[in-house]
Amino acid sequence: MPGLVLVGAQWGDEGKGKVTDLLAETADAVVRFQGGNNAGHTIVRGDEVYKFHLVPSGILYPGKQCLIGNGVVVDPKVITSELEELRHRGIDTSGLRISANAHLIMPYHLLLDHAGETKLGKLQIGTTRRGIGPCYADKAARLGIRVQDLLDEKILKQKITAAMEPKRLSLRPYAKDPSLDLHAMTEEYRTLGHRLEPFIADTQRIVWDALDNDGLVLFEGAQGTLLDIDHGTYPFVTSSNPIAGAACVGAGVGPKDIDDVWGIAKAYVTRVGAGPFPTELEDEMGDRLREAGGEFGTTTGRARRCGWLDLVALRYAVRLNGLTGLVITKLDVLTGIDPLPVGTEYTGPEGARFRDFPYHQSIVHKVTGSYTELAGWHEDITGARSMDDLPQAAQDYLAFIEEFLGIPVVLVGVGPGRDQMIWTEAARRVQQAAV
Ligand code: IMP
Known about the structure:
It is a single chain. It is built from 14 helices and 19 strands. The protein has helices at 16-24, 76-88, 107-120, 132-140, 153-164, 168-171, 182-196, 203-212, 245-251, 284-293, 311-321, 361-366, 392-405, 425-433; strands spanning 3-8, 29-32, 41-45, 48-52, 65-68, 73-74, 96-99, 103-104, 200-201, 217-220, 260-266, 269-271, 305-307, 325-329, 340-347, 353-354, 368-374, 409-413, 421-423. The termini are close together. Residues 11-13, 38-40, 125-128, 130, 132-133, 222-223, 227, 236, 238-239, 272-273 line the site of inosinic acid.
């Protein structure tokens, strides 16, 4: 059971970090393959709460191989401070490795992200302003600076000069910003390079070795399917591909190295930032989900938009990612809502009905969810540890999802704690298959 990809099946924040962390216990390696510190995940261990943006989940297991793959964009200041915090809290970070080929987020990327959003005004995407888009743009323009460049002052300086040259005009308003001074920037990034040097490696080789030894490798996605730059709700997306196919590119493996792909989805839906959201609830029910689910961003603290479970979008995610299993998180948040609507179609402004996720932007922006009402439950489910512990209505909710999507539910989250998870046989098999 070597390669398992874990991806967000909605608009991100589905709880991927917790699921990856649970499965990481027996994994040989965990590798992140895209995104950057726009991601954020919270892991609760007893009374301790850890919030990470860049380090892969699994870092809390001493010595665990936690890899930042070539497809990730790395802000060296952020990874350095995450490492410092972990060390400060007594966590062994010796298993962390950062791909020498990963691209670096530079100070000008942050400024350009900010400036781009400001210029868009009302049309803004609502980015996390972490420099993600401008960094991936430089990568595609072949003006990117990679982690390996931190190790050579001359190359670093040359590359910074070349990368900043075409941006002179857009950076003019920031001409006096000290973070843009070439010498200071080179100096600062060289210092960060010294600190990160022990972690810089050929991460793809580590992944290959683990796979060749039949070890379990978890490919940890960030963001979610509908934020994919090719297949999501463009332009209200992130600048990478959070779908499963990107695990191959962003970690350096072939499609045959992937055995299973699990999508993580909340029992309802949330979205941060702007863009279409057909099953959004802009009423008291939306507020109720936000409060009950603690739906405030790990990275930006922004309140998340909330809505009913959208099976049209989820079926799209099943197909795009080739999902073989679904993890449902936060089922407990729906307790007490009866009846319980589930989005099973979209309706357009002229009454047109859509069973499939529309490809055209102007349609996606106008459709609203049409719902099937299922029976809700009122019992506290936070103590459930098997499907049989769940009230019949909750079991029926999950069965309805499975039937609609044609894939099995493999794990169910019923609370924020590590142990508040229902493990199915399929999930146990993955854990036990690890060497
Ligand atoms: P960027 O990735 O910072 O460029 O932001 C682009 C869009 O993706 C915005 O709508 C963000 O709110 C969203 N986004 C980026 N990262 C995450 C995440 O980890 N969870 C949820 N939304 C995200």
